[in-house]
Design a protein that fits this description.
By secondary structure, this protein is mostly beta strands. It is about 0% helix and about 15% strand. It has an eight-stranded parallel sheet, with no helix packed on it. The chain has a two-stranded parallel sheet with strand order 6-8. The chain is globular and about 50 Å long.
């Protein structure tokens, strides 16, 4: 389809709405006010979205569990609002965007269990704060430009089970802290 414009309140008055699929359109702007509070899945993959902030986002969608924003033009994610009070969010896919840093989402998404960052031009995996993703079990950052990881990076994921950073530019494996004892799958294939 070629939908490129969505009204500010288009889904707001649909109390039974659970899923919205707007995949493969030409959408540039989304508005925080457009969503019904009952939605649990939003698919906006393959659009032209570049901004997620307080006016253009998903804040206060307390039933939202899955959010797909892959294959857009998003440069920053989690810094400028638009993602507040997403207490039920479990899965988020922001792969194949223009992110250059690891997004900091732990305080706004306490139940996040799966994060996909594939195909973003992220050079390194590092934390500058004390973010902890208490429930993240799967992290994928394949096909990025990752050259290294800070020593404390994996300590932010105490229950991580699946960690995949295939097809990057790593030349050495990271140290695995004792907090990594839940890892069951590690993929460092095709690096260097």
């Amino acid at each position: 389809n070629k939908i490129d414009n969505i009204g500010r309140n288009v889904f707001a008055d649909l109390p039974s709405l659970k899923t919205v699929n707007l995949d493969k359109n030409m959408i540039v702007n989304i508005f925080t006010s457009m969503w019904s509070l009952t939605i649990y899945e939003i698919n906006l993959a393959n659009n032209q979205i570049s901004v997620i902030d307080n006016n253009n986002g998903f804040s206060n969608l307390q039933n939202l569990q899955r959010l797909f924003l892959n294959n857009n033009k998003i440069e920053e994610f989690g810094k400028d609002g638009g993602l507040d009070n997403l207490d039920m969010l479990q899965t988020i896919d922001v792969g194949y965007n223009l992110l250059t840093e690891f997004p900091y989402l732990s305080t706004t998404m306490p139940n996040l269990s799966q994060l996909t960052l594939d195909g973003n031009p992220i050079l390194g995996l590092q934390f500058s704060g004390s973010a902890v993703y208490q429930k993240l079990v799967s992290l994928s950052a394949n096909n990025c430009l990752i050259q290294g990881m800070s020593g404390n990076f994996l300590t932010a994921f105490p229950v991580l089970q699946t960690f995949s950073i295939q097809s990057n530019n790593l030349t050495a494996l990271p140290d695995f802290p004792s907090q990594s004892s839940n890892l069951t799958y590690i993929n460092f294939g095709q690096n260097g």
